[in-house]
């Protein structure tokens, strides 16, 4: 009877589905969640998300896949168009950072040193938002097509 009750509860209102992408994401997320039963979580892991937001074994507030196979299956169910790629680690991560992150960050930090703003963290955050090379390009004038 647990699964039908769980299905009814999970579909009783809006929900938010997200994909967590990081090295060792599953173990990290499960640690943040705490035990499945929120009542147990309140006793043994009082700072866990389920202890804080859950109410009982059924209404435990959050879900986390138990292993990679389950995560992959659940991701494809909720997000059928998503391609699951491995998170780069080691040399692959360094190569990615050097190619895609460092040029923009170095330019921003250089400009930060030249400007010497009162709040450098906020200044750099704003600069990175404005100078993100992956930001979509917006067309500020309408494109008019000639009729055929």
From TrEMBL:
InterPro entries: Dpy-30_motif, NDK-like_dom, NDK-like_dom_sf. The keyword Coiled coil does not apply. Keywords: Cell projection, Developmental protein, Hydrolase, Kinase, Transferase. PROSITE patterns: NDPK_LIKE. Pfam families: Dpy-30 (PF05186), NDK (PF00334). Residues 1-86 form the Nucleoside diphosphate kinase-like domain. One of its GO terms (biological process) is negative regulation of oxidative stress-induced intrinsic apoptotic signaling pathway. One of its GO terms (molecular function) is hydrolase activity. The keyword Transferase applies. Its main location: other. GO terms for cellular component: cilium. It is found in: Cell projection, Cilium. Belongs to the NDK family. This is Nucleoside diphosphate kinase homolog 5. It comes from Macaca fascicularis (Crab-eating macaque).
């Amino acid at each position: 009877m647990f699964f039908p009750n769980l299905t009814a509860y999970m579909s009783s209102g809006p929900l938010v589905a997200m994909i967590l992408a990081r090295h060792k994401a599953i173990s990290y997320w499960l640690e943040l969640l705490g035990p499945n039963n929120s009542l147990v979580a309140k006793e043994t892991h009082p700072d866990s998300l389920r202890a804080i937001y859950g109410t009982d074994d059924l209404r435990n507030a959050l879900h986390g896949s138990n292993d990679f196979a389950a995560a992959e299956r659940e991701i494809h169910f909720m997000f059928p168009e998503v391609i699951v790629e491995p998170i780069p680690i080691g040399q692959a991560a360094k190569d990615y950072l050097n190619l895609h992150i460092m040029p923009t960050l170095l330019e921003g930090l250089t400009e930060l040193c030249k400007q010497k703003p009162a709040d450098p963290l906020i200044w750099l955050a704003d600069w990175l938002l404005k100078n993100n090379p992956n930001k979509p390009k917006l067309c500020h004038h309408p494109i008019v097509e000639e009729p055929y």
